[in-house]
Amino acid sequence: MSRNAVKKVVLAYSGGLDTSVILKWLQQEYGCEVVTFTADVGQGEEVAPARAKAEAAGIKEIYIEDLREEFVRDFVYPMFRANAIYEGEYLLGTSIARPLIAKRLVEIAAETGADAISHGATGKGNDQVRFELGAYGLNPEIKIIAPWREWDLLSREKLMAYAAEHGIAIEQKRDGSKSPYSMDANLLHISYEGYDLEDPWVEPGRDMWRWTVDPQDAPDQPQELALTFSRGDITAIDGKAMTPAEVLAELNRIGGAHGIGRADIVENRYVGMKSRGCYETPGGTIMLKAHRAMESLTLDREAAHLKDELMPRYAELIYNGYWFSPEREMLQAAIDQTQAVVNGVVRLKLYKGNVMVVGRKSDTDSLFDESIATFEEDAGAYDQGDATGFIRLNALRLRVAGRRKG
Amino acid sequence: MSRNAVKKVVLAYSGGLDTSVILKWLQQEYGCEVVTFTADVGQGEEVAPARAKAEAAGIKEIYIEDLREEFVRDFVYPMFRANAIYEGEYLLGTSIARPLIAKRLVEIAAETGADAISHGATGKGNDQVRFELGAYGLNPEIKIIAPWREWDLLSREKLMAYAAEHGIAIEQKRDGSKSPYSMDANLLHISYEGYDLEDPWVEPGRDMWRWTVDPQDAPDQPQELALTFSRGDITAIDGKAMTPAEVLAELNRIGGAHGIGRADIVENRYVGMKSRGCYETPGGTIMLKAHRAMESLTLDREAAHLKDELMPRYAELIYNGYWFSPEREMLQAAIDQTQAVVNGVVRLKLYKGNVMVVGRKSDTDSLFDESIATFEEDAGAYDQGDATGFIRLNALRLRVAGRRKG
Amino acid sequence: MSRNAVKKVVLAYSGGLDTSVILKWLQQEYGCEVVTFTADVGQGEEVAPARAKAEAAGIKEIYIEDLREEFVRDFVYPMFRANAIYEGEYLLGTSIARPLIAKRLVEIAAETGADAISHGATGKGNDQVRFELGAYGLNPEIKIIAPWREWDLLSREKLMAYAAEHGIAIEQKRDGSKSPYSMDANLLHISYEGYDLEDPWVEPGRDMWRWTVDPQDAPDQPQELALTFSRGDITAIDGKAMTPAEVLAELNRIGGAHGIGRADIVENRYVGMKSRGCYETPGGTIMLKAHRAMESLTLDREAAHLKDELMPRYAELIYNGYWFSPEREMLQAAIDQTQAVVNGVVRLKLYKGNVMVVGRKSDTDSLFDESIATFEEDAGAYDQGDATGFIRLNALRLRVAGRRKG
Amino acid sequence: MSRNAVKKVVLAYSGGLDTSVILKWLQQEYGCEVVTFTADVGQGEEVAPARAKAEAAGIKEIYIEDLREEFVRDFVYPMFRANAIYEGEYLLGTSIARPLIAKRLVEIAAETGADAISHGATGKGNDQVRFELGAYGLNPEIKIIAPWREWDLLSREKLMAYAAEHGIAIEQKRDGSKSPYSMDANLLHISYEGYDLEDPWVEPGRDMWRWTVDPQDAPDQPQELALTFSRGDITAIDGKAMTPAEVLAELNRIGGAHGIGRADIVENRYVGMKSRGCYETPGGTIMLKAHRAMESLTLDREAAHLKDELMPRYAELIYNGYWFSPEREMLQAAIDQTQAVVNGVVRLKLYKGNVMVVGRKSDTDSLFDESIATFEEDAGAYDQGDATGFIRLNALRLRVAGRRKG
């Protein structure tokens, strides 16, 4: 793509060092107009200061938006209906926020007449893929500028030098001040990569973690919690109705206080290498456990098993950046189809890193039938003799094969 | 099956109330000779006393066997190579012991010239299916007597009355003395069903649990542990080589002390109803976490993902009793094929119910390459420009579809 | 189930020998009122005569219904959206008609106040399962009488004797007159089992086949056909709009004339044994080929591949009788979600047993882009250099693994 | 990759126009030594002339090899054990030959001390991916030169001009003389792309097809054939033992004479676009049909169904070029594990494009049991009453769900 082919670019802009350098670099190298887009997806930092910074950089069109409700309602909640976990451990906190950003970038490009978008994801990571597949899926003609794949500012030192040279103010308190880790945060999680994590044998330092207390420092008393589900989504905590983003924020607060949701894993990136990441997902960890418990009471066995078989594929799609794809939509249709009956209440106990289910009920949709499951006489609810035929016909093919061997 | 068609039956015999009644009932109702088979699969009770009891009941052929090593080596370990979990929660502790018992029953029948086997599993549960599918798969001509599906002794009271009437001694201390729960135990786990668990909204009492301390009562200091893997199996703890059964016993001991491995779930039985069960699987919980961590470092991404997709099916097969089936063997072949490289050491921290991975390494088989994964300049190990083509071709189909829409 | 517990039963009644005997047997053995239900699902026999026969047997409530449109629209068409094939060969002709019959039996039971239903499927086949799972799924309290599993009239001779004894008229021309095969037919197919097919090494006689000419006797000239698809369903033949049942009837007629759609297979029944069946599915064979061709032009690659992976499971569900189940509905939701774009026209050539696709187009939904696929220069529609990065990143994990080995 | 970094390159060389130009271009542009490698994989052209041409071009190290047996034995046969079909239609004829070529290129590079390999596949197709993934998987350090992605000779005219300019002799009779199609052939198939196929609505001309007669021109008499299977592979035709390559060659000859194995499809390439291809796979089409028939008699139901579910993934892996990958090896282990019992004979009838199975038998491994499958009384081989319990327990979950609704 020729650089002077770009007239106007929408930049995903945090106001931190990296995207401030990118802003300047786009102006210089592409000579094009830049629109900044700063989103609050619950990363826990003020987005308002981005305005002054963008203005200082000469930006005319500045978008600053609170996307927290849309993020949880349209992305996090649908994903949790699938009980999605990547590689047995990762709750996809970073992955699920990227398509929303991609969507707004493309929409803002349309609104402002921009022909390109740009982002600050590096050339080795998954996020570049997620941003760009999302954007291409929504607008096949969009141009995408990924400065980390183009420039030679491939270290923090070079970035700092570029910033100094071009008069870009660097606030030490922003962007994970003093933290040696590469971090990402949104309402679902905070992640850490790099630095001492690059040796998978080394345990990270205690002060790396930011959202959760160390389980050892968590309260000595468990806390009970009741979560109300409606069609697979949590709609109330301890009986108090909340919006999706309120639910997640509150579960983060409570879970974090009890040391819940830490993960330290080696994962496989879509771009082909293994990397080590640490994650804190306090609210999500609680949601997953509770959702499975609610399903255990209300969901049909075969639907549940089919969901379990499809889940790894679904999680992989999200991890790889295919949220806006026919195959993700196809799987979502299957998943959502099952959730109409996932209604009721789950009781949990939180204690020093543990989420324990201690009760689940559903007035309308329970499939648990005490009269059938009981060990005592059941007054005819279940004919034990049926089991004989059930076993014998299921065994028939094995017996015929056994005769062949014998 | 006509009752006088049976000449000799091998009974899975614990010496407890149920199987003692069955022994008598078989003698009376079938008028056949009974061979008793009592196995130590690590249930934590003495098996020796079964001999005296069987002799007292007039049994001539008495088999008492220690199957612990075979159980862990040939059943538990292969299953853990698959990271098997049923319905997201259950580590299949009961399920995996049944095929071994079925195998020995059939083998002993061959050795003793018996034409039938018998077991004490009820007509509503999964175990009858597991015993019988296993037996039929190994000997298609075997006859199977399942007294619980034939008799009318369908409550504890009736059993006790029968025992009293026939002079069967009932030791109150055996078979979970005073416990109101229906329990099963082996080296992998102990399970609880029935009683107050029949209401899934009710939390079981603190004194139900037997193998693990309450996390609240676990030590205030974490314990570190290093597990050595060879071809996917744990072969040493903290550098000390152990047999499979020794590994599992030791992990049970350590895990139990730290309150690890409790589960309280509603599960779907193969015979069609939901039931609530509580499980303690301390060693297995540690093994699963550690095995995933070892694989995360050494296993190829696509092999790992395929394993994850096949796992629910594999777990379902074991849960449903199809260990001795062509489809389980087919999946096992695929799983085992991947484990040659799963070698190395995983470091864990155990603390009040938590199993935390804090390090993993493999001198011979690590696929983690710091020079590629690093955030800093990598001296050419990875060409960031490659990502552009990677993304653009992966996006091509989405873009063509986008043009159709637009 | 106690026989005098049944007050009124709805019988799936063809008027042939088997169900005439059943009617009488129900009256005699159960002493209950019988409602007859005779459906035209396109089996190619008059259903009207069933009325007189039922009346002659003293039946007061007689249902005779033309279900052909409902059958094709609500059962056959949804199934073909999935490209369903059982075990690589069988187009599920019998399987897909059973749930509709079950549904009407249950509905008529509700309308007439009957507490039971009955059918003429044998105790070794799949159809009993399909009828009964369907019925139980729709009305959990329904009673089901399966005479073949209860009585001892287990051969044609005994049935004939019973009929003679009870004055049941046997028309030699009905029910596959003179045919030695067990047959089933509906608008989708006709099937043959039994007789010389019981030896899978033996080729059936030429005169077994009824719906299709032998390919050797088919016309020497091919016939062209254009099928119009709308959302995955065929809505017109050679430009002429037709209802679903009209489409299938017409394709049967044309396909049969060209010797299309014969299959001779050994299949695995749900009840555990292998059986040999021969099938004629002329219209269905054409539909499947055409539907795949229409999808090949309009469906996204990954959606298509996911459909292919889910298809065997979906086909198995239908074969096994789980049409009315949460898991089938879940898969159907996924499948249907993909079909909105399956619009266009497919051109076929039929010739002596062959269905050949010779063209496919879609004005609105083609994803085929000549400018990208061309072997000649494409004026920038596709950057060949992108392939380098695509390959290199896809190879990265393999290369890292190669270094480990080397 | 810097061009002067390459010292010696092994070129997959046919002696035709494209690879002759590439040879020259490599010498000129890379200034490196070239080793030619010409393989007979059954493409039906003499490979010997390649020697003289290579010598004329100044090549010192010339490899000409007959790989037909290795191709069929180690690639085609394992693939057919899986019943592999890509997108419901394509028998993977081109895909399966590429990894073998890649393997020999890498091996010859090692033998000759070459540091690079090169091939003539274009930048839009799948073959570049298959060659390069295969090569990288076998030697992670190999350099790969793909001239079609580097040069600007992007049309046939430019190639011809380059050839003329550099004195490269162009034989009109080679490389599909006068054919306007892009073709590829090996012992499994011949393929056609481009030219009038670029409009998927247009039927290709009758004279495009080369290996099979038009079904209309095929013999009016069917031909019978008996294929003997051993562990899933065909080892004899009509009782005559043959090597794998002999089997395939003979089936190609017979099938081609009967017009068998034509396919005209739109497929999804791995690089992201749809393309239209025509294929002739006469022997493969017969093999697939026969293999399924042999399995239908000898393979367990659940193993067969699991194979069917895994097959699309397996086929996709081969299509995409992942033959030498952990995930393909994992699936192969599962597939091969099932084939020990796939022994016996299948009888087929070939007639004007049709392959009809007319019989199958296995003296050692048949699971077909007439006494169980029969419609007549079976003297107790199967207890029809068992079906009641089988159905009732399978229905239990549906009934409980029905009660919830009701």
Automatic annotation (TrEMBL), chains A, B, C, D:
Protein name: Argininosuccinate synthase
Coiled coil feature spans: none
Binding site for L-citrulline: Y90, S95, N126, R130, S182, S191, E267, Y279
Gene: argG
InterPro entries xrefs: Arginosuc_syn_C (IPR048268), Arginosuc_syn_N (IPR048267), Arginosuc_synth (IPR001518), Arginosuc_synth_CS (IPR018223), Arginosuc_synth_type_1_subfam (IPR023434), AS_cat/multimer_dom_body (IPR024074), Rossmann-like_a/b/a_fold (IPR014729)
Residue ranges of domain Arginosuccinate synthase-like N-terminal in the record: 8-168
SUPFAM superfamilies with a match to the protein in the record: Adenine nucleotide alpha hydrolases-like (SSF52402), Argininosuccinate synthetase, C-terminal domain (SSF69864)
Subunit architecture: Homotetramer.
One Pfam family matching this protein: Arginosuc_synth
Record-linked PANTHER family: ARGININOSUCCINATE SYNTHASE
Residues that bind L-aspartate: T122, N126, D127
